Amino acid sequence: MVSDNKEYAMDRIVTFQGNPLTLVGRVLRLNAPAPQFKTVSTSLKEVNLSDFQGKTKVITSFPSADTPVCDLQLKEFNKRAVSLSGDIVILGISKDLPFAQKRFCELNNIKNVTTLSDYKYSSFGLNYGLLIKELNLLARAVLVVDKNDILRYMRIVDEITQPPNYDDVLKNLEIVLHNSVIPPKEQLPGHCKPCEAGTPALSKERIEKLLVEHHGWQLVEDRKLVKEFQHKDFAEAKYFLDIVALIAEEQGHHPMMTIMYTKVKITLTTHASGGLTENDFIMAKIIDEVRG
């Protein structure tokens, strides 16, 4: 799995006691830049992926620390962390409230796992495609993000009531530590940059070159990107729109979106530039990664 560079989409389904549940959010690629996210610490401070820059991150997500399997998951990672080097951090992320996470860690002497809550923004769940639609909880998964913030390993546990394969995680962690990868040469950054007045719009030649890489997006009036997304019903269309809105707010880039029964129409442009900038194409790529 570490060397695979395909989309990590699977069937976008996990089960709970055999009953299927749907994962929503972005579909990621291994060996590509890991998306930024914002969570809340047990001290109620905002914590981002960038706060662990330069360290190898083992990220384990779970539905709730109040369930037996999740309880054991945190305890097991806390125990195994003792043998890891100081430049490795283990992050435990769930949608439990920070107060509940803090209480759990104090009661169980969890000192080697940094627990973070996704309750406020759903940022981690949406950016990593691990939000369970029907429950609004996180799926059980383990990820490894290397020192260069490249996503190197990702395993989603198919059945929520089952634990992760800890030995597989540690085996692949060793592979990551001893086999660095060169970050891919992206034509565009993975995150929108703050846009100031006076930022020039892209040339027509640059727009046409980027447009080839963004399937389904139409160039309108030489200064807008437009695409329509079809859904099975109004509720699904609105849910998709809501997800895009949350991610767009986090990116600081705000598209025009209209919903017409089962269809969502999205228009991208940079008003400060009076036309298209790289931010519009970055946002278009992110929107295409969203599955709602």
Could you characterize what this model shows?
The chain is of the alpha+beta class and 292 residues long. The chain is 27% helix and 28% strand. The protein contains 7 helices and 19 strands. The protein has an 8-stranded mixed sheet with strand order 5-14-13-8-9-10-6-7, covered by helices on one side. A hairpin with a 4-residue loop joins strand 13 and strand 14 (150-156).
In short:
The chain is α+β, with helices and mostly antiparallel strands.
Q: Any chance you could write out the topology, listing elements then pairs?
A:
Blueprint: E1 7-8, E2 13-16, E3 19-26, E4 28-29, E5 32-33, E6 38-41, E7 46-48, E8 56-61, H1 68-80, E9 88-94, H2 98-108, E10 114-117, H3 123-127, E11 131-132, E12 137-138, E13 141-145, E14 150-156, H4 166-178, H5 204-211, E15 218-220, E16 224-230, H6 234-251, E17 256-260, E18 263-268, H7 278-289, E19 290-291
Parallel strand pairs: 8-9, 9-10
Antiparallel strand pairs: 1-4, 2-3, 3-11, 3-19, 5-14, 6-7, 6-10, 8-13, 11-12, 13-14, 15-16, 16-18, 17-18
Kindly provide the radius of gyration, computed on alpha-carbon positions and rounded to a whole number of angstroms.
20 Å
The count of helical stretches stands at 7
Cα distance spanning the termini: 25 Å
Q: Mean pLDDT, nearest integer?
A: 91
Share of residues in strands: 25-35%
Low-pLDDT residue spans: 1-11
General form: globular
Structural class: alpha+beta
Please outline the major beta sheet: 8 strands, mixed
Main sheet: which strands, in order across? 5-14-13-8-9-10-6-7
- Which series of helices and strands comes N to C? EEEEEEEEHEHEHEEEEHHEEHEEHE
DSSP E strands, number: 19
Percent of residues in helices comes to 25-40%
